[in-house]
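Running log. JK asked me to keep both predictions on one page so they can be read side by side. First protein, sequence followed by its tokens:
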Amino acid sequence: MPPGARQVSLGGLGADSAPGAASTLESRCEELRLAMVRLLNDSGGIASAIRDNGSIAMPGMDDSIDPLGPPLSVRGLSELFTGLSAGGRVNTVFAYVGGARLQTVNPDAQADLQAFFGAVQRFNSYCQQAVLDDALGVALQAPHLPPIVDRIIAGAAHFSAFFEAVAIARPAFTAKPARALSASEQSRISECYQRYHLMATDRMLAPDDLAGLLPRGRSARIGIEMTWSPHAGEQYINGVYFPAEQAQAVMAGAATAETSALVAAV
């Protein structure tokens, strides 16, 4: 995370504070896709351990809780939202694109990303606490855990496809003037979602639940990258960059959810 940007963690979650290294939108988007594929495979391995009453590796643990991992490492991912341009540091926001002519831009992709990273970090904290309590095997067999792991698998599959789709659509959106997606590009985007969703169902504990566990933007399959210059009020929430206005909306939504949970508990 760059100096000067505020870091916010929801639900006690942490985030990486390393400065950005990747310098181009293309390379950062591809690194995010590869990270999602890794999370898809690693969470699938955890699902297998749960199914087989086995255990999971927890390398590098000490006596403290580190939400960035293990068992699912998200270390360094926050830096992939920051790069350098000729004018200095720039930050990346991903959005869903929809509408008949792909003219509707929905910023919920960034909010879906932080929710996904938050779920991963909560799971990491849960597993690490179980190790500290010498009860990891019992914790992995808790009845509430399978849908949590399946939701992580579904999210990793969704964003693996999303970042691949962003790369497929990029030539159309960056053309001057911008052009419509070709039939071939649309077909490739549909195919990549089908491929990753199949990978998810192959790994999930309850594969029939996939549709209900995908992020809320699951119907918007085309994405776009947008860049923001550094400004007052920008924040990293669960390791994901947000410009000031969007950060305020995410934090307000989190506060509303916490209030609702408190009322429900009374």
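And the second, directly underneath as requested:
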Amino acid sequence: MIVVSPWDPSAVPLIDKAIRTSDLGLNPTNDGKVVRVPIPGLTEDRRKDIVKQLHKILENHRTAVRNIRRDLKEAIEKLEKEKKISEDEKKRGWTSWRNCRRRKRRRSRISARRKKKR
């Protein structure tokens, strides 16, 4: 059980509501000063639900990173078209962007190797 005791007792209903609407399957109780959140034991179904939620969150973050990279690429191209940056600066921007992608791929290959060793 998790017990939450905020400094400001007027925040208890807000905390209670936030936990209920978080789609975590938790049912908090409060006595006006403290919020108690009973954590059920993990079952196989519950683990699968948690993994599904984590995959959704992960995909949202991956999409956000892709969008940031796309925006960076478009901004570099736009600046070069408007002659605000030189071709060398464009290549430097591409290089830093590409190196970021390479580091990401390298990290994923390393973590895949570690998983195989286990």
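Observation for JK regarding the second prediction: The mean pLDDT is 83.
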